[in-house]
Automatic annotation (TrEMBL):
CDD domains in the cross-refs: ArsA (cd02035)
Domain ArsA/GET3 Anion-transporting ATPase-like: 34-305
Sequence segments annotated as region (Disordered): 1-24, 337-386
Alphabetized InterPro entries for the sequence: ArsA/GET3_ATPase-like, ATPase_ArsA/GET3, P-loop_NTPase
Biased composition (Low complexity): 367-386
Organism (species): Streptomyces castrisilvae
UniProt name for this protein: ArsA-related P-loop ATPase
Organism taxonomic ancestry: Bacteria, Bacillati, Actinomycetota, Actinomycetes, Kitasatosporales
Length: 458
């Protein structure tokens, strides 16, 4: 894939050929594809896309696990599970004669970190690490820890070789690139001068070590001691001494998982909505994946709008609405409250002419029953203030707004395609409501598979 430097997916208008179609069924059916990573900016539907792919792949015969990092727990709710945790849970309700299995889990960042410590340190050292205040702070929310732990968990799941397919919902971070950057960021932290300085005393030992420690601490206490406190620095030093033997393992596993993401058995799906900011972020991510030699399968464009009445353009609808409203102003109809003369009209101050038609009708129908008169009066009282013409004009204006939205979305999509014509795209038509169960996820899966925009969007 050729990387492109212009990431402004919302800049400049262009006419471009349609993008190639993304065949998601071929992707999830391919036995060589073992990992699908759904990535993109926040709020574009990554979690729903990952869950829908998992359901569809399982019902087409694969044994799937979906790993989400979404704290909103929508995945658990949509799959009918009370709660998700760091252990894969079997999802019930997967249908089909040749159906496989679906499991789901939600990353527990701290628990994943604890598992790494427990797996790579003896009992006494593991206990010292887990009880260390600096470790507890680090494992609960250190910058980049969530992304790194997501990579760790992905590596663990793949190493178990228990599932045919792993679908990953990347963290809801401000930058969609954090997931890729996490291993390098943690590696830089572990290799940094601060950590090396703290590790040196433990490695040297004895008086020489203590002398070095005193020199090192004297260099830092002037600034860090005032900002963070001496106790914090001691906690860090104790943590580093206990973690010394594990640092190399962190780096090795991070590198291995990074290579796993570059392997042919992995496929990245960039998820976006047809909005300028979301597609600008998607364009940037496409270029970054290319730069990192990550295998991109394509773009999922969520919540695309269309209209079954697309033959009626926005301009035509607005013209028709204006004509109807003009008729409503000129051709007044007696008895329509919504179409009275304006207050400044010459006739506004004069009394309306007597309704002789109504009086003649009563005289001609003098034999009518009282009940009939009551019914007629009641009907007159509930006559709506809005005429058919006004209602039609309002609907035409709504349709015009819809068609303008469709045009904006298509224009934004065309700009992305002009920048990245090689990226396959599948469009998912917007649903009338939120997805909250397996049926909703199946509906999303169907739209992912068809890969066609809704009526009027193409």
């Amino acid at each position: 894939m050729t990387a492109r430097t212009n990431a402004g997916a919302g800049e400049g208008t262009s006419t471009t050929a349609p993008a190639p179609s993304l065949d998601t069924d071929a992707l999830i059916d391919d036995p060589d594809i073992r990992i699908i990573v759904c990535c993109g900016s926040g709020g574009v539907g990554k979690t729903t896309t990952a869950a829908a792919l998992g359901v569809r792949a399982a019902e087409r015969g694969r044994k799937v696990v979906v790993l989400t990092i979404d704290p909103a727990r929508r995945l658990a709710q949509s799959m009918g599970i009370d709660s998700l945790d760091n252990v894969p849970r079997r999802v019930k309700g997967i249908e089909g004669e040749d159906a496989g299995e679906l499991h789901a889990m939600m990353l527990d960042m701290k628990r994943t970190f604890d598992e790494i410590v427990e797996a790579h340190a003896d009992g006494e050292r593991a206990r010292a690490i887990l009880e260390n205040p600096f470790y507890q702070s680090l494992s609960a929310g250190f910058a980049g820890t969530q992304e790194y732990m997501a990579m760790e968990k992905l590596g663990q799941l793949r190493a178990r070789d228990e599932w045919d397919l792993i679908v990953v919902d990347t963290p809801p971070s401000r930058s969609a690139l954090d997931f890729l950057d996490a291993p390098k960021r943690l590696g830089s932290f572990l290799d940094g001068k601060f950590i090396k300085l703290l590790m040196a005393p433990a490695k040297m030992g004895g008086r020489a070590g203590m002398k070095f420690l005193n020199v090192g601490m004297s260099m830092m206490t002037g600034t860090l001691g005032k900002l963070l406190g001496g106790q914090f620095l001691r906690d860090v030093q104790t943590f580093v001494a206990a973690m010394d033997t594990m640092f190399g393992g962190f780096r090795t596993r991070a590198d291995a998982t990074y290579k796993l993401l570059q392997a042919p058995g992995t496929a990245f799906l960039v998820v976006a909505t047809p909005e300028r900011d979301a597609l600008r972020e998607a364009a940037y991510f496409v270029e970054r994946l290319a730069a990192e030699d990550m295998p991109l399968a394509g773009l999922v464009l969520n919540r695309v709008h269309g209209s079954d009445a697309a033959r009626l353009s926005a301009e035509q609808a607005l013209t028709a609405a204006e004509n109807l409203e003009a008729v409503g102003i000129v051709d007044q109809t007696a008895g329509k409250a919504g179409l009275r003369e304006p207050a400044d009209s010459p006739a506004a101050g004069s009394a309306p002419p007597p309704d002789t038609t109504a009086s003649h009708a009563r005289e001609a129908d003098s034999d009518a029953t009282p009940e009939a008169d009551v019914t007629a009066d009641a009907t007159t009282e509930v006559t709506p203030d809005v005429t058919t013409e006004e209602l039609t004009a309002a609907l035409l204006r709504l349709h015009a707004e819809r068609m303008q939205m469709v045009a904006r979305e298509q224009d934004t999509r065309d700009r992305f395609t002009a920048l990245h014509p090689e990226v396959a795209v599948t469009a998912v038509a917007a649903l009338p409501g939120d997805v909250h169960d397996l049926s909703g996820l199946r509906a999303i899966g169907d739209r992912l598979a068809t890969g066609s925009p809704p009526a009027g969007a193409a």
